[in-house]
Amino acid sequence: MNMPVFSEAEHEIDKLMGLHPKGFDLSLSRIRRLLEALGNPHLRMPPVIHVAGTNGKGSVTAFCRAILEAGGLGVHVHTSPHLVRWHERYRLGRKGGRGELVDDVVFADALRRVAQANDGQAITVFEILTAVTFILFSEYPADVAIIEVGLGGRFDATNVIEHPAVSVVMPISLDHQSYLGDHVELIAAEKAGIMKRGCPVVIGHQEHEEARDVLIATAERLGCPMSVFGQDFLAYEEQGRLIYQDEFGLSDLPLPRLPGRHQYANAAAAIRAVKAAGFDVTEAMAEKAMTSVEWPGRLQRLVAGALMPHTPDGAEIWIDGGHNPGAGEVIAEAMAGFEERQPRPLYLITGMINTKDPVGYFHAFAGLAQEVFTVPIRGTDAALDPVALAQAASDAGLQASPMSSVAESLEAIRNRLAAGEAAPRILIGGSLYLVGNVLADNGTPPK
């Protein structure tokens, strides 16, 4: 058996794991102490687009990056979590071109400097990685930095940013209840914590009126110039095109490359956020962004790789890391849209971790999916047992079978197909950890 090959940076992260405090409270005190020891690099970054939300924050980050790069700007991007390698969290901007994932030597050097400044004190791995973000983004020149919140907002380690060019809050639903609260109003209040007095705010499409009200009230209290989806800007499909509209006018754009109707609102929030941050968005920039945007692991289609020999002939394979009921709803809607255009039997291959609501996730697929195959996940101690996950799918009204792997599930689907039956559509997801496993096993990690 081949042992995994770890990069220099991954060895550094492994050494830092032991500093992670047990049973800690979300707090900004540790990251502030560390940044002070590093000379406060977070105060020397380019203008920041700061993004929070339960769902959609990764997509809006990807759209913002695509728009800005289409204008020839250098764009730093911080996202979390990663799918296969830690390096995916940091994309360093390059003037006039596409940014690139951080080089291993550069990443490892930043990690060592952060570890030295921390001097062995208790600190979370995410706080270490956030300090690395600030070092990299302050030392490498770029026109703008897009920084995605890790968890919540108010006490997230990224929330030491004092004067964001714009704070963006995307759709809010129930997730991480043990940290953020068990009502959408409480979660909205935590996410709204990234808003800073007098700094622009963009509020993306909100399914829950209670969450929207909390976000608006917070922005008003802080005197933030505010743009709200459906009120100040909107987007919709018309004759196979995306129509974006705000008080500055109307844009007739190609439909986004990212599939699913939910991406229309995400694209609109990104256009508005880039404008609110003080950048011009030309029609040409927006057009190019809609056709060039990419976001690995989110309704991404697999067309080649090591898993293909296990796959039924002619099957469509999609992967998506959405893992809560809100994500289940938008992914199921996208699958229903695919079914409308080209009918195929839908099968799910699902793995989830024990902090999620599997029944709520599966409910969205009742009446849509033929069967669910539940699988284990590598790389986390929090993975739900496939037998328990299959029971959750059954409780949501779906036929479900536990399996030992994704490959075994693909072969089981192949064996289920009757002669002459249409090639299936297969959705692999329920966890970003599982999507990372799939990309690694398939030999197609994000670049």
From TrEMBL:
Belongs to the folylpolyglutamate synthase family. One of its GO terms (biological process) is tetrahydrofolate biosynthetic process. Its EC number is 6.3.2.17. This is tetrahydrofolate synthase. It comes from Ciceribacter lividus. The keyword ATP-binding applies. Signal peptide: none annotated. Pfam families: Mur_ligase_M. Its cofactor is Mg(2+). InterPro entries: Folylpolyglutamate_synth, Folylpolyglutamate_synth_CS, Mur-like_cat_sf, Mur_ligase_C_dom_sf, Mur_ligase_cen. SUPFAM superfamilies: MurD-like peptide ligases, catalytic domain, MurD-like peptide ligases, peptide-binding domain. It catalyses: (6S)-5,6,7,8-tetrahydrofolyl-(gamma-L-Glu)(n) + L-glutamate + ATP = (6S)-5,6,7,8-tetrahydrofolyl-(gamma-L-Glu)(n+1) + ADP + phosphate + H(+). Keywords: ATP-binding, Ligase, Magnesium, Metal-binding, Nucleotide-binding. Residues 51-273 form the Mur ligase central domain.
